[in-house]
């Protein structure tokens, strides 16, 4: 029961923060929805696939077995650690971005964030997504989760590369110098 709550609460809380924040942004005339930096269908398919992978882990934690093999203790504990780390990065990155947060590239001017988690990683939220995907794959040991996970990671890496081009064009030398100091992921 405790493990199920530990697995279930972070994605629910993150989605509340994400969509609740969008509502608060709209009330202040800020559009949280940016431009998809890659093909829009691929972009949104990948974003919704993340939620599908999170749901797979949640469902598994509540006793609905999605595994084709027995998940032993070690992968289960590693996945729980990755899950916690991933959501810490997601929350930290989301709150660290403040009003500059967008789903996609912003349509208006925003600030470049280089402090907090952004001193360690240029993409802490994507790193958090990758950690939660790895957690879901390990927790369920399901080949469909594995395939969806590879798809999401590949598409999100493509998104990161496109966003980097946008940031370089927008912030120029400031972003270039930031990239020289801070790695893309870790």
Provide structural commentary.
This protein is mainly alpha-helical and 186 residues long. It is 69% helix and 0% strand. It has one domain (2-181): Four Helix Bundle (Hemerythrin (Met), subunit A) (Up-down Bundle), CATH 1.20.120. It contains 6 helices and no strands. The chain is globular, with a radius of gyration of 17 Å. The mean pLDDT is 94.
- Total separate domains: 1
Secondary-structure element order, as H and E? HHHHHH
What's the mean pLDDT score?
A: 94
The description of the largest β-sheet is: none
Q: What general form does the structure show?
A: globular
**Can you tell me the CATH architecture?**
Up-down Bundle
Helical/strand content category: mainly alpha
Q: What's the level 1 CATH class?
A: Mainly Alpha
Can you count the helices? 6
Roughly how much helix do the residues carry, as a percent range?
A: 55-70%
Rounded to the nearest angstrom, the distance between the terminal CA atoms is 34 Å
What does this entry show, briefly?
The chain contains six helices and no strands.
Question: Strands, helices and their partners?
Answer:
Elements: H1 2-27, H2 40-61, H3 73-97, H4 124-140, H5 143-171, H6 173-181
Helix pairs in contact: 1-2, 1-3, 2-4, 2-5, 3-4, 4-5, 5-6
Features:
Four Helix Bundle (Hemerythrin (Met), subunit A), 6 helices, 186 residues, mainly alpha
